[in-house]
Design brief:
Elements: H1 2-15, E1 19-23, H2 32-37, E2 42-44, H3 49-61, E3 65-71, H4 72-77, H5 80-89, E4 94-99, H6 117-121, E5 127-130, H7 135-146, E6 152-156, E7 174-177, E8 183-187, H8 191-197, E9 204-208, E10 210-212, H9 216-223, E11 228-237, H10 242-248, E12 254-261, H11 272-278, H12 283-294
Parallel strand pairs: 1-2, 1-3, 3-4, 4-6, 5-6, 8-9, 8-11, 11-12
Antiparallel strand pairs: 5-10, 7-9
Length: 295
């Protein structure tokens, strides 16, 4: 997904004179040609993430549509005050494009893991959040975000991905499988594991590549008249969207199980599959937890 982002950035810069890209060293070497063509609209501030967001806000104030990019922990968590003030409080928009989210680079250690990024942005109003599960989806959502007026948009890219792209529409959930015993909502790269874990189970599987705004209408349509049983599977902090599910189903009796990355740290580097297994987000872990909940 990150390679796809880098690949289309030059095209977007060539096409739209309003677009600017702000970097904090991450991916700067891969965008040298773009920086040479557009030296006034590709800015590398170095390893200064607070300045990354400050410059992004300043460019937005001049009328540009800035894209800020680095690892998720350095894009959302480290400069959170600047995200809150330099973008939100000043009433300007930007596109924040992250990489290396919850467990993409385990060898980087805890400094390079940000399972709480979406939950943190939930404390601020007005953010659109895309969580693509495939490079093709990432490109579609990135192009939409770049052209999305002056809105505040977060695009969460990951190494972990699904085997095939789905025909996602920004802001809409996609029905992948229909059933009668409950609804499992898979977010971004969790779809393949959810489909494998629920194979042979009479459940509806919804797919979300956009989680904010939350498509409550699609969820309500999937659960019918209730009572509803919903399992939410997210590739970041467990329970991040449980409140959104509760709000969407407030008028129906319902139960919700929120699965994702726990707050507790796993202090071994490992690999992406090993982290997924440790969090219970691999196929075996999901099958056991979903089956027990729906039973």
């Amino acid at each position: 997904m990150r390679d796809r982002f880098i690949g289309i950035t030059g095209e977007l810069l060539d096409q739209d004179p309003r677009l600017a890209v702000v970097l904090a060293d991450i991916s700067a070497a891969s965008l040298e040609a773009e920086a040479a063509r557009h030296p006034d609209r590709v800015v590398n501030v170095g390893i200064r993430e607070q300045l990354l967001i400050g410059v992004t806000g300043g460019l937005a104030l001049t009328g540009l549509r800035p894209i800020a990019h680095t690892f998720a922990s350095f894009l959302v968590e480290r400069p959170f005050e600047q995200v809150k003030l330099d973008l939100g409080h000043q009433g300007v928009g930007a596109v924040l494009v992250s990489a290396a989210g919850s467990y993409d680079w385990p060898a980087g250690g805890r400094t390079h893991m940000a399972p709480g990024d979406v939950a943190l942005l939930d404390t601020l109003p007005g953010w659109t959040v895309h969580v693509p599960g495939h490079p093709d989806e990432a490109e579609r959502l990135l192009r939409h975000a770049a052209a999305d007026g002056d809105e505040k948009v977060y695009v969460r890219l990951s190494v972990h991905q699904n085997a095939e792209a789905r025909p996602v529409e920004p802001g809409r959930f996609l029905t992948v499988r229909q059933g009668r015993r409950g609804v499992v909502l898979a977010v971004g790269p969790m779809l393949d594991a959810v489909l494998a874990a629920t194979e042979g189970t009479d459940v509806t599987v919804l797919y979300a590549a956009t989680v904010r705004p939350f498509d409550g209408a699609a969820l309500r349509a999937a659960v019918g008249d209730g009572p509803a049983e919903v399992v939410l599977v997210e590739p970041y902090l467990a329970g991040t969207s449980v409140g959104e599910v509760n709000a969407a189903l407030a008028e129906l009796p319902h139960r919700v199980l929120g699965l994702g990355v726990p707050k507790e740290e796993h202090r071994q580097y490992g690999t992406i599959p090993e982290h997924l297994a440790a969090y219970g987000l691999d196929v075996a872990g999901l099958r056991g937890r979903i089956t027990a909940f729906l039973r």
